[in-house]
Design goal:
CATH superfamily of the largest domain: Zn peptidases
Helix content: 25-40%
Pfam families: PA, Peptidase_M28
Bound molecules: D-tryptophan, zinc ion
CATH class of the largest domain: Alpha Beta
Mean pLDDT: 92
Cofactor: Zn(2+)
CATH architecture of the largest domain: 3-Layer(aba) Sandwich
Subunit structure: Monomer.
CATH topology of the largest domain: Aminopeptidase
Strand content: 15-25%
EC number: 3.4.-.-
Structural class: alpha/beta
Signal peptide: 1-18
Shape: elongated
Number of strands: 13
Length: 504
């Protein structure tokens, strides 16, 4: 505390002399007003944002991700990895260096992590090209290959009665649909299967997660509909297809941590909250996803310390987003009704610098979300318009950390620059870039490094994040009061997604 205080005095003296305010006057307690920080303004804090500072942080984060190489053979910041632990250290120590401007809280919660080292599926004499191991799959017995006939499961494999008696000692082939992959794997295990293969009903390969582990889960793969078709036909003809399955994987329970920083100043009963996720997927370093969001928050948290705020500002760095929004869900679930009500809104910042970007605003309406979501949406829209920039609306469908908030009555929204969506011709005209390609061709891949971030888009969006913080840090005038219960607004019963992984 003492150290921080004397640094602050030193800085203010330096400012006073630069402005040629007589030195003694600046020290006179009656003129203490000269030592007060200015109230934050959108213009001032936007001017504090530079792509140079963001890039510097991105390079630091990549170095941190390289600590994951030991265990994963490539850079990663997936929860449980050294890359993620070092990310948490980096965020915490940066915040701690800001003195007492923030109250910092570490919130540790249980999470399940999986790592698949190797897998192989041979059906008859061939290996389907589209084969993928499901996330959080257990290994095959003793991490060794298992052998048995392929057996076709009836219907969707969601009921025990769908599994024929010869599933015991076999590899179960199950159609996607009706219930989660985890339920199918569990049912297969209960029926005595050695492994399970879920085939897609839509086009393309099938990559999903088994979700919460069950002792009945068996090693589970996903394959495409096209790859499955000849096997289904042969099985229906009574052909015996001797097969083998092999997965070397671990699934374990760990503790991981959300970091929350709240301004000590400002009305603590009226908080503007914003968050990004501190973790990446196992496959890569996650510098755009979500280094871009989480570093933007860190930079703004740093710049904000120059200013006074009227409302409290609460920053969050969520862990386990990539495993299914674990950290944000946990955080919201732990809020008492009184604490919940203090959060006036939650702003989600996940992927702000996609290389083939579009300026995307979540289309969060008050008709389908807690009241206030639409006012936030319009704040982003108005800013892009004022800047003379194009924007598009994207679905507010549960793919990031806002989901838990809106499900608990807290207005939410955010911006993004796109993931595995394909850029249309119209979007290429609006934003430049490459039509027909993903917004982020490195989404969830090893190549999501520093050069995967578009610095122009990043700086633009970081200024918009700064604008959002400054606006609500000064006033909630015109922003709807928090409502609770049914008053808060409707939320879709079953989200299309909960995070980025398919569950069924
Ligand atoms: N859940 C994010 C990616 C993400 C967030 N919103 C969207 C919308 C469309 C596609 C992807 C996303 C992640 O961390 O992967
Ligand atoms: Zn992701
Ligand atoms: Zn993300």
């Amino acid at each position: 505390m003492r150290q921080t205080f004397s640094n602050a005095v030193f800085l203010l003296c330096a400012t006073a002399s630069a402005l040629q305010i007589p030195f003694l006057e600046s020290l006179n307690p009656q003129n203490a007003v000269t030592t007060k920080k200015p109230l934050v303004s959108s213009e001032a804090i936007q001017a504090d944002i530079s792509s140079k500072a963001l890039l510097k942080r991105a390079k630091e984060l990549f170095k941190i991700a390289e600590l994951g190489i030991d265990e994963y053979n490539h850079p990663t910041r997936v929860i449980g990895s050294k890359g993620h632990l070092a990310t948490l250290d980096y965020i915490y120590s940066t915040l701690a260096s800001l003195g007492d401007y923030y109250t910092i809280t570490n919130q540790t919660f249980p999470a399940v992590v999986g790592n698949t080292f190797e897998y192989r599926l041979v059906l008859g004499d061939a290996s389907p090209n589209s084969t993928q191991a499901m996330s959080l799959t257990p290994p095959t017995t003793d991490k060794e290959p298992v052998f048995g006939p392929l057996v076709l499961v009836a219907n969707d494999g969601c009921a025990a009665s769908d599994y024929p008696s010869n599933t015991t000692g076999a590899i179960a082939l199950i159609q996607r649909g009706t219930c989660p992959f985890g339920t199918k794997s569990e049912n297969a295990g209960k029926a005595g299967a050695l492994a399970a293969v879920v085939y897609n009903t839509a086009d393309g390969s099938l990559s999903g997660t088994l979700g919460t582990p069950s002792p009945h889960h068996v090693a589970t793969f996903g394959i495409s509909k096209a790859d499955a078709a000849p096997y289904i036909a042969a099985l229906k003809n009574g052909t015996i297809i001797e097969s083998s399955a092999y997965i070397d994987a671990i699934v374990e329970s760990i503790g991981t941590t959300n970091i929350i920083a709240q301004t000590t100043a400002g009305d603590a009963s009226n908080c503007v909250m914003l968050g990004g996720h501190s973790d990446s997927v196992a496959e890569g370093p996650g510098i755009n996803d979500d280094g871009s969001g989480s570093l933007t928050l860190l930079e703004i948290a740093t710049q904000l310390t120059k200013y006074e705020v009227r409302n409290c500002v609460r920053f969050a760095w969520w862990a386990g987003e990539e495993e299914g929004l674990l950290g944000s869900d946990y955080y919201v679930s732990q809020l008492s009704a009184a604490e919940n009500k203090k959060i006036r809104l939650f702003m989600d910042y996940d992927m702000l610098a996609s290389p083939n970007y579009a300026y995307q605003v979540y289309n969060a309406t008050n008709a389908l979300n807690p009241v206030g979501s639409e006012e936030l949406r319009d704040l982003y829209v108005d800013w892009y318009k004022k800047e003379g920039l194009n924007y598009t609306f994207i679905a507010f469908d549960g793919r990031s950390d806002y989901d838990g908030f809106i499900r608990h009555g807290i207005p939410g929204g955010g911006i993004a620059t796109g993931a595995e969506g394909v850029k249309t011709r119209k979007e290429a005209e609006m934003f430049g870039g490459r039509e027909g390609e993903w917004f982020d061709p490195c989404y969830h891949q090893l190549c999501d490094g520093v050069s995967n971030c578009d610095l122009e888009a990043w700086e633009v969006n970081a200024r918009l994040v700064a604008h959002s913080v400054a606006t609500y840090a000064v006033s909630f005038e015109g922003f709807p009061e928090r409502r609770v219960g049914v008053e808060a607004g409707r939320v879709a019963e079953t989200p299309l997604y909960h995070g980025s992984k398919l569950v069924m």
